[in-house]
Amino acid sequence: MTATIAKRGTKASLIIRDARIVDPAAGIDTRTDILIEKGLITRIAPVKGKGGDVQVIDGAGRLLLPGFVDLHTHLRTPGREDEEDMASGTAAAAAGGYVTICAMPNTAPVVDNASVIASLTELAESEARVRVAFIGAISRGLKGEHLSDIWDMADAGAVAFTDDGRPVMDGGLLRSAFQAAQTVNLPLSLHCEDLDLAGSGSMNEGEVSAQLGLAGIPGAAESAAIARDLEIAAYEGARVHIAHVSCARSLAAIEAARKAGAAVTCEAAPHHLVLVDEAVRSLDSNFKMNPPLRGEGDRRALVAALAAGAIDCIATDHAPHAAQEKETPFEEAAFGVIGLETAFPVLFTELVQTGEVPLDVLVQAMSSNPARVFGLPVPTISEGEEANICLVDVDQEFEIEPGNFFSRSRNTAFAGRKVRGKVLLTLAAGRVAHNIL
Amino acid sequence: MNRNLLSINDLSREDIESLLATARVDFLDLSKRDIKKVPTLRGRTVIDLFYEKSTRTSTSFELAGKRLSADVINVKADSSAVGKGESLKDTTLTLNAYRPDIIVIRHPHVGAAAFVARYTDAHVINAGDGMGEHPTQCLLDIFSLQQEFGDLSGLKVAIVGDILHSRVARSNIIGFQKMGMKVTLVAPPGLLPRGVEALGVAGQRAGTRSSDRPDGGRSGADLKVAHSLDALADVGVIYLLRMQKERHEGGNFLPSLREYIARYQVGLRHLSDGKKVLHPGPINRGVEIEGALADSPENLILQQVEAGLAVRMAIMYRLIVDSAVADAGAAVDTEAGAAKPAAEVKNIHAVG
């Protein structure tokens, strides 16, 4: 097993009646009952009787979905537990319907050797409410100079490697990283950005940045880096995952590589699918992230690519920051927003209810697709499977209130937004990880 | 044989068998005698021109020449005019003016032996050119294997380690296949040269010469590539290579040496079914080879050193004698093959 979870508490036994069960990977979209006994799904069909002492949950008007999988969570642990720790981060994940998250290595110390992964695994085994998998650093200390202990980390359970937060600017190092990762049959997840093109920019380069007088980050800083990295990956015949794609030109580069036969997958973040750089006019630092919010044309291209299956995964890039790192002038503020607790409601409301993206496409992009990209257990609603599910209320509208977050941080780009799709119950590895019923 | 020995591709399988038979019959036991010398190359001059550090190769060539009664001169780059900026061309021309019969050259750059051959009338022996080739090592390895296994047809060998930087690997991949062996290369992708499959026999044209590189890119049936020591399970011979740390400068060929050792170090636990281990030396104890294996009789490392002397004597002898026969044959213009080298120089074991 490459992902760990605390074994506290008992395995759940309950009945959910009359929910709409949607699991495209299992080929299910039906309204019926589901019986869960000791953490296992034992029946997907009408269940007679009152269930005895087993808890019965009314699923009418609610969606029962396979639990979500996030390939891009900044858990901030070790080093910045004031921003997020194992307990708060996994509680936030469970509250968002996630059953597995993948923690990024840009911590202090950096996750660049097996002993850090071993200690984090131990921490997850005692504190984590959902499965946590660890992504190792590509380079020692994320310095972009020497390969980290890629092989040892693979043995310790790393599911992928990345220098996320920073691109691998040195093409020779990137090539060596592909070779080292291939030896242990794991993918690289790449934050693609040409730092020289990005310069000191703090938002998307375009009309808004020109009007505001903020230095811009051109889309080409991303798309040019993706094109280069995909060339190197193709040359090595290596598996590569492109993190947080934000613009249309990047999608074009990925499509071209796919047509040429490259083994490339990619992810997009909810904020890039819903928001655009117009939001930055407020100079609210909760709209500052990297890559930055782009223009409407780029956003529309991302939505179309998600609907068409060209974007494989939704990934949150959940990036908690202490209040003092955001309560500053825009240019001084830290990059990044949190996303675990808002991803599904925001995307369901803004993309599914508007008819732009089918529900089954969104569910796959949040669950089975990401699980397969990093070789994680695929949450599946099927008899005999461990319960990795979430129950979602799609009837009641609610307002996103950062004060209610389980995360230790509040830096969301969606505060005050009215949405549907609140997660009521999450079972991860058969255990109750979140329950507000 | 040809005039020079620049690449293992200069030799056919028959050439190799014949050469190694000479080494076995005429020179292997010489070192076991009290008087370790024959007059075969008396009056001949051998210059060993070494531009790189070497213990066994330079010692072996020097001893080989001396035991054949040749006059042997050792030129080391660090204590010669090379240090004063003389080019390889000028050094060669200068040495050639002494009319040497053989120049043995070791140099850090590919093609240096062939370059020297252009500017001298002497027979040139490549004792290692950069990451290019090391044909005499290949021949002594084949010799050692023949001593252990007899006929090598179908014998499976795994070449393990820093193949990317190894001239020994390059010569042996070719040479072992010439002898009918099945070769598996075992290394992480970062230590394998891109396109190494082209060294498979399937990609080679018949009778290739050193100037005539293989044209294919496909993996031949006799050359496989693997990335883990699991591939050692069904081989009869494990050929270990030294981790050439000095050539790793500025590159990221491995995550770390420690991780390499954990996954690729070969030890006694990998030996079963009479597997034998070869290593061209120098070994890095505790890196590519476990200390206990280095000390075990299951390795043929010292037999390789011993073979090196006999094989290098045979090479020097045959280069001179075969070309003398060829010249004589051309002059007389009669039945080729009538003159055998062994008949030309009689009584080579007589003590001089």
Arithmetic mean pLDDT of chain B:
87
Instruction: Report how far apart the termini of chain B are.
Output: 26 Å
Could you state the CATH homologous superfamily of the largest domain in chain B?
Answer: Aspartate/ornithine carbamoyltransferase
- SS-derived structural category of chain A: alpha/beta
Count of folded domains of chain B:
2
Shape of chain B: globular
Question: What portion of the residues of chain A fall into strands of 2 or more residues?
Answer: 15-25%
Task: Indicate the percent of residues in helices of chain B.
Answer: 25-40%
> What order do the strands of the largest sheet of chain B run in, or round the barrel if closed?
7-6-5-8-9
- CATH C-level class of the largest domain in chain A is Alpha Beta
Report the C-alpha radius of gyration of chain A, rounded.
21 Å
The CATH superfamily of the largest domain in chain A appears as: Metal-dependent hydrolases
Helical run tally of chain B: 10
Residues in helices of chain A, as a percent range? 25-40%
Described by its quaternary structure, the protein is: heterodimer
Structure description:
The complex is a heterodimer of chains A (437) and B (352). In chain A, strands 2, 3, 4, 5, 6, 17, 18 and 19 form an eight-stranded mixed sheet that branches. The model of chain A has no long low-confidence stretch (mean pLDDT 96). By secondary structure, chain A is α/β, with parallel strands linked by helices. Helix content of chain A is 30%, strand content 23%. In chain A, α4 (171-183) crosses α7 (219-236) and α7 packs parallel to α8 (248-259). Chain A folds into two domains: 3-63 and 384-435, Urease, subunit C, domain 1 (Roll), CATH 2.30.40.10; 67-373, TIM Barrel, CATH 3.20.20. The two termini of chain A are 31 Å apart. The relative contact order of chain A is 0.17. In chain B, α1 (13-27) packs across α9 (301-332), α5 crosses α6 (167-178) and α5 packs across α9 (301-332). In chain B, β5 (156-160), α6 (167-178) and β6 form a beta-alpha-beta unit. Chain B is built from ten helices and nine strands. In chain B, 45% of the residues are buried. Chain B has helices at 13-27, 56-67, 88-96, 112-118, 135-149, 167-178, 257-264, 291-294, 301-332, 341-344; strands spanning 45-50, 71-76, 102-107, 123-129, 156-160, 182-186, 223-226, 237-240, 276-278. In chain B, strands 7-6-5-8-9 form a five-stranded parallel sheet, with helices on one face. A four-stranded parallel sheet of chain B has the order 2-1-3-4, with helices on both faces. The radius of gyration of chain B is 20 Å and the shape is globular. Chain B folds into two domains: 8-134 and 304-344, Aspartate/ornithine carbamoyltransferase (Rossmann fold, 3-Layer(aba) Sandwich), CATH 3.40.50.1370; 150-300, Rossmann fold. Chain B is an alpha/beta fold. Classes of the chains: A alpha/beta (437), B alpha/beta (352).
